[in-house]
Design brief:
The protein is an all-alpha fold and 122 residues long. Helices cover 84% and strands 0% of the residues. It has one domain (2-119). The longest helix is centred in the N-terminal third of the chain and has 27 residues, at 2-28.
């Protein structure tokens, strides 16, 4: 159990660092933080779809790697808590069109990205 906790914690830490770096550089280059969250969520969905596909394909990805990458890294990297907060802020500010497009785009493209990740592992 300790090994599993350490794998998830290490992966989550690295994922969180990568998330911070994406935010840092998008803001530094003048791109709104909203787009960095969107990009991270879609990239995280693509990665977890790819890893899930590899795990299903003849057990190429073992349990330790799943814990490290899927539970840890992807969990630390993706930002649905930030996503929810941003949605609430858009709602409170009356930005209903942007809010609707952001939610729809995140769900549809996230779903598609997982499918693409699974497709590339076949």
């Amino acid at each position: 159990m300790l090994k599993q906790i350490l794998l998830v914690g290490f992966g989550g830490g690295i994922g969180s660092i990568f998330r911070f770096l994406v935010s840092y550089f998008t803001v530094k280059f003048g791109i709104a933080n909203l787009y960095s969250t969107f990009t991270v969520n879609i990239a995280g969905c693509l990665l977890i779809g790819f890893l899930a596909g590899m795990a299903l394909k003849q057990s190429i990805v073992d349990t330790s790697l799943r814990l490290l990458m899927m539970t840890g890294f992807c969990g630390g990297f993706t930002t649905f808590s930030a996503f929810s907060l941003e949605n609430m802020q858009m709602w409170q500010n009356g930005n209903y069109i942007t809010l609707s497009l952001y939610i729809l785009g995140s769900i549809v493209l996230g779903f598609a990205a997982v499918g693409i990740g699974l497709y590339f592992t076949k």
